Amino acid sequence: MAHLLGIDLGTTTTIVARVDESGAPEIVRDWGGEAITPSALCFETATHVVVGREARAMAEDAEHAFLEFKRDMGTGVSHPVFGQRVTPLDLSALLLRKVRTHAEAAHGPDDLAVITIPANFTNAAREATLEAARRAPRAAARAGRASRARAPRARERPRLARARGRRRRAVRLRDARRRARRRWRARSARARLR
After folding, report:
1. What's the pLDDT band for 146 if we cut at 50, 70, 90?
2. Residue 178 belongs to domain spanning
């Protein structure tokens, strides 16, 4: 059976899972024993990068700390770090390399890593995420779209908006009918009392 690794590179957190020998998914805990790793990086020196909870804790005091950098994927944004420029693509690649290397050290090498890409990402952001995945060890990564239930595709949005509009109109009509019935009952009750 192939050794598969799934990485959800999120804006604020990253989760790594693998398929075990029985075929069941299993969360890969990070180097601190936690199931969820914060998507945070902090450069202590030009060559030493701290990743995860420790980086998030250092973010308040450190000059070269990065949180939520995934929002800038595929844009021209870059940040100065010890005399060189780093992009969100570089930061994502560093984070992916760290979590993938840890997962392989803990459970053995994987044959394929799947990196999720949000459905609402632009093509530039999608390509930047793919490039970050390629920069992680052994460029055998494939990208899968994250849940479409959270972010419908552009061509589905007008249809969904029309459906929402119909539901809203139906609710307004139902509420108007209920109010009218209540008024009629109140008038009938008053008429009976006279």
Report:
1. low
2. 155-193
Neighbours of 60 (CB within 10 A): 7
142 and 165 fall within a common domain: no
- β-strands 65-67, 13-19 pairing: unpaired
Q: Is pLDDT of 142 > 80?
A: no
Q: Within this chain, do residues 162 and 98 fall inside the same structural domain, yes or no?
A: no
Kindly report the pTM of this predicted structure: 0.69
Alpha helices in the chain (DSSP H): 53-58, 88-107, 123-135, 157-193
- Distance CA(4)–CA(114), nearest Å, equals 8
Q: Tokens 């420790």 appear where?
A: 54
Checking if the pLDDT of 141 tops 60, the result is: no
| 102 and 171 inside one domain | no
H or E element in which residue 45 lies:
none
At how many degrees (to 10) do helices 88-107 and 123-135 cross? 40
- 56 φ, ψ (degrees, to nearest 5): -65, -40
The pLDDT tens digits of the residues spanning 151-164 come to 444 455 566 667 77
